[in-house]
Design a protein that fits this description.
Number of domains: 1
Distance between the termini: 50 Å
CATH architecture: 3-Layer(aba) Sandwich
Number of helices: 5
Largest sheet: 6 strands, mixed
Helix content: 25-40%
Radius of gyration: 17 Å
Strand order of the largest sheet: 1-8-7-4-5-6
Strand content: 15-25%
Number of strands: 8
Oligomer: single chain
CATH class: Alpha Beta
Low-confidence stretches: 1-30
Shape: globular
Mean pLDDT: 84
Length: about 170
C-alpha cells in the first residue's frame, strides 16, 4: 500500500512538473521561429515574425480545415475593428499537408486582410519546442501574444472573443 501511495505521489509530481515546463503562461524571448522566413500566401512577399519587433503581434496557429480557427479569425477581425493599428495579426497554417494555394483561396474567400503563411522550415516544430504540443492543436485556437520587446506567451486555450484579444493587446 505504501508503494502504491508513493507511486501516486511521484506520478502527480511528474504531472505538475510537466505542466510548468511548457512555459506557456510566462513571457519568454522568441526562439528560432521568430526568425524563420515565411511567405505571405496572398502577396508572395517573404517576412519573419521578428520583422515586427516594436509592434504587438497576435500569432495564430491554424489550419484551413479547422472550423474553430475560422471562428477565432472572425474574432481577430473584430478585434482589429475595435483597436485599429494597435497590433498586427499573423496566421500560420501549421498543417503541412495544406498548400499555399489552398491557404490563399481560403483567405481570399473569407476576406481577411492580415498575413497568412504556411508552415515552412520547421516553424511549427520550433513553436512546439517553446510552448509545448498544445500550440499545434489548432482546434484549441492557439494564439501567441508577442510584445514590443519580442517576448512571447501562449494565451489560454479556446476561442478568445474580440474584447478579450484587445484586452490582451493593451495589457502587453
Amino acid at each position: 500500500m505504501r508503494l502504491y501511495a508513493l507511486l501516486l505521489v511521484v506520478l502527480a509530481a511528474g504531472c505538475v512538473g510537466s505542466t510548468a515546463q511548457t512555459g506557456s503562461q510566462t513571457e519568454q524571448p522568441a526562439e528560432t521561429w521568430a526568425d524563420a522566413t515565411l511567405t505571405n500566401a496572398l502577396t508572395g512577399e517573404t517576412f519573419a515574425i521578428s520583422d515586427y519587433r516594436g509592434q504587438i503581434v497576435l500569432l495564430e496557429a491554424m489550419a484551413v480545415w479547422c472550423p474553430v480557427c475560422a471562428e477565432q479569425q472572425a474574432e481577430i477581425e473584430r478585434a482589429h475593428a475595435l483597436a485599429p493599428g494597435e497590433f498586427v495579426s499573423i496566421s500560420v497554417d501549421v498543417d503541412n499537408t495544406e498548400t499555399a494555394e489552398k491557404l490563399s483561396s481560403y483567405v481570399a474567400g473569407k476576406g481577411f486582410d492580415w498575413a497568412f503563411a504556411t508552415d515552412a522550415g520547421g516553424f511549427g516544430s520550433s513553436l512546439e519546442r517553446q510552448f509545448g504540443f498544445q500550440v499545434l492543436s489548432v482546434p484549441s485556437a492557439p494564439i501567441i501574444l508577442i510584445d514590443r520587446e519580442g517576448n512571447a506567451r501562449l494565451l489560454p486555450g479556446g476561442v478568445k472573443n474580440a474584447d478579450a484579444l484587445v484586452a490582451y493587446v493593451r495589457s502587453s
